[in-house]
Amino acid sequence: MASERLESTRQALREAMAQAERTAELARLLDAAQARIAEAERAVEELRDVRERLGEAEESLARARATEERLRKELAEQRYQAEVARWKLSSVQMARWSRLGDAIKTGKTNPVRLARGLRGAARPVKRPAAPKRPPVPQPSSQEARPVPGAAFQATASTRTLDGVSFRLKPFRVPTGPNTRPHLTAAVVADPHAEALLRYEWRQTAGFTPRDFARALAAEVPHLLLVESVGQGPWAEEVRGAGEGLRALLAWCAERGIRTVFWHTRGEVAEWAAAAGSFEHIVTALPASVQAWGTALASAEPVSGRREPSLGLLPFAVQPRVHNPLPLASGRFDRVLTLAELLPDHLSYPDVLTSYRWPKAVECPPGTEPWRLAELAACGTPIGAPQEGGEPDPRRAHAALRQAYAAGTMTDRVDDLLDAIGLPSARPTLGISVIMLDRGDPDGALDLVAPQRGVVQLVLLSQAVTDAASAEEVEKKARAALGPHVDVAVRSADPALTTGALLNRALDLCEGDLVAVMDARDAYGEHYLTDLARVFTFTTAEIAGKACYHAHLRDVGATVLRRPEAEYAYLPEVAGATLLGRRTALRSLGFADLSEGWDEVLMRQCRTDGVKVFSADRYGYVCRRDHDAGLLGSARLVEYGPAEPHALV
Q: How much of the chain, in percent, has pLDDT values that exceed 70?
């Protein structure tokens, strides 16, 4: 019995010793683990310090690069302004009045020299060409720097219908200057919204919740606009009011950057948590305004933060991408349904290609108004033509005009900037009209009075023979055009050529654009509005019409000249349809000719590399008694008046 108790004691002792050994081993392992944890914590702390120093270094580098870029731009601008000053001085010296003054001064004591000098000064002298703003030079050793934001170009060049593949030449999404170069906006948006906004300001996009501080430090924005995005690195952040979004808003608050949330999809409740942290909320969906008001009223107030303002920012056409510029591959000779035209897999740049592809599109009831407007702005007829017929291009042109008249994205951004307190100033396209009147000033005024966008009329009238008649015509012009239009009336001196008269009128023009109109012809009330639209989506300096209707009185025929010459950069347009940038026309000047002055101008444009764009065929009728040249380059429309075909 005693031996059993002794053995039991020994067994218990052995187990206790084994347990003690395991406990000691566990303690040793725990100590080792704690040591490793401490080492890891020190490493994390060091890494955090390194990251902070790296972030500071990157911000410093970004600031240095921004400063370098700014100084390079300033230097380029100073050099350009110096060239402009030299050009202005040369232009003044070459001006006729300056040369006359020099001739009088040098020949005042010598009649022979005076006569020779005056004769030489009276000869026309070609004005020096204005300098063009050169691109900002980049240092040769500088590496290519990635621009925030992904490439925004079409990628899908084929479309499949009924198992058949069709190859398209994709629409090239434009680059180049924007509407408000003084304003920088950081934008979080899906591709559709980004395409609408990217030409309205200097836009920074493509930054993520991890790198926004580094990406935005190079050029601190004036505005942050965040859409209710459905894809990309910000989608979950915005939907869930995540830490990355809060950090971005805090970063903006520290720098006084205005913040705007743009609701474009989904129910208000999905986005209310994130939107409440912004200074301003705008919605593209008018029906959601009441729901937003309710959500904001029921939200818990945050100390030190005022309730966000609420407004509208609906989708609208963007002229730079929604325009009638055709595809190089032409239109597909079929009417497509909207589902056939826009399969779900297309990116938005590919959508812009598809818009321009079919000869017409059938859209089902309930199609979004913005989708219809974008299609119409691309010149695509909406709705199937009557059976056996062709789409009506006149109706398509009227729909295009209506899409623009309803308001472009530029107009919508104007309203947004005014609402949040940022300057909405941007260049305008005020038009000075030079009207050549051959004895009927009342008829000339009837043509100009309905036009919109006119800020000045320079009327060259053969009915003006003295100061009294000039005053009478000017009084009529002011009554017809209203107080917002400046009027200058001059005599159309029969001793001067048409080109000389145009040069005299051009010196009086003050508008951004200058139009030349001929009182012999007919102009629709939308003529200038339609033609000026060209400057919102092309890089042309001169626009006009190479394709237009003409009526020949001797045979009573209406013809359409060069029907293939719509919406294209071409070598020439008709002189009576000329609309050009004032600076470009002044640098070119008009030839001292009565016939063919427009041909010489177009030839000079080709020599100097000035881009000329031919717009649509509507809004203008050339009226002539007889013109063999028109008959040789036109097709017969009908025997009858041209206005029903041309004036839409």
A: 83
